[in-house]
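Handoff note, outgoing to incoming analyst
You'll be picking up this chain. Sequence as last confirmed:
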Amino acid sequence: MTTQSSGLSETAERILSLTIAWMDDNPGEFPTTRKLCELAGVTAPTLYHHFGDKEGLMLAVAERKLLSFFQGKKRQPETSNPEADLLKGWDQWIDFARKHSAFIGALQQSPVISARLRMGAEAIAMGRLERLHQIKPLRIPPQQAAQTVVAASNVVVQLMLQGMPAAQLKAVNAQLQQAVLLGLRGR
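Most recent structure output, in case you need it:
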């Protein structure tokens, strides 16, 4: 039997939901396969049957959490200031990564998941940069600008994951934002 909203079987949905809940309740920690099986009341072969392996489960977690995050960002009303909208989105990513640091750290260990994460972020940034480009022409195409913005914001996430103090991280984030905008505009 599958659940209507996700297409997953009830068992797979339970494993996925419990994994997400555990990760939300235990920031900074990442569950072992044994812990995941214990939480869901299943054996390792059952987990592997539904997700292939632990990376498959993490991909499902990533898709669920990031889809929700990205959908929320897409639903935000645009203001008359696309630059402010872009920076707001950047800050939301930093805040999401801070609240879900174990999750983000684990996802970045997988090239497949990291690539999907980056592509989703670039798509949203590109939409905002295309609007900005119409008002204030950029020195580079919006797609390349989106890659630059996502790369710079992910530097901030890496510094956060490495334990940079919050006040210092906030200052570095603000400096990077201004440097990137200056570089994109050329003045």
